[in-house]
Design goal:
Blueprint lengths: L1 H25 L9 H23 L6 E8 L5 E11 L4 E17 L8 E16 L7 E15 L4 E15 L2 E6 L2 E6 L6
Length: about 200
Amino acid sequence: MKRRRATRTRRALFALAHLFLVACQDEPPEPPPCHADCEDGIALRSLRETMKLVYNITLQGNPEGEQDETTACPLGGRARVFGTATSNPVQGATEVELTYELAGCRYLELDDEPEETYEMTIDGTVTQSGVMAVQPTATTALLMRSESVTLDGNVFDPPRPFHGESCALEVAQSGNDLSGLFCGREVGVDLGGQPN
């Protein structure tokens, strides 16, 4: 009788252990940790990708030369971009000296990668100068500056609140690498696959 009880107990424990293992396997993996530098990188990504969106909505396809366009941002707010954009077909690039005025401009990116996911509202003026790659033969080389830009929203997945108030910005983009100073902190992000 003791042997039967021991066998039943072992079978019950084995069944419970099996259920526990199966239940654990069905849970999605935990996302990697995202500390302050990670959050800053996502916020910087959101700014760069918002500027890219505004450029594509307003200036892409315009004749080269002086530019001055205003648009509603797709999720709220508005943006104005003005300055010069000159095409260089031999290099497959566009040379720009542009100013972006963002007023409550909201943008959202939901990605499979948690560090590429954000929902951000941006206020401020950012200048952009340098070369945007249009063809694979060129490399994007841009400098972006602002005396005061405010970003407010969420970064990462699961979302974490982010707020950068009246931040100075001085960052450079070389190819897919975006790095520099944001709110007095060094920050960097690999834009991977985001050429301009």
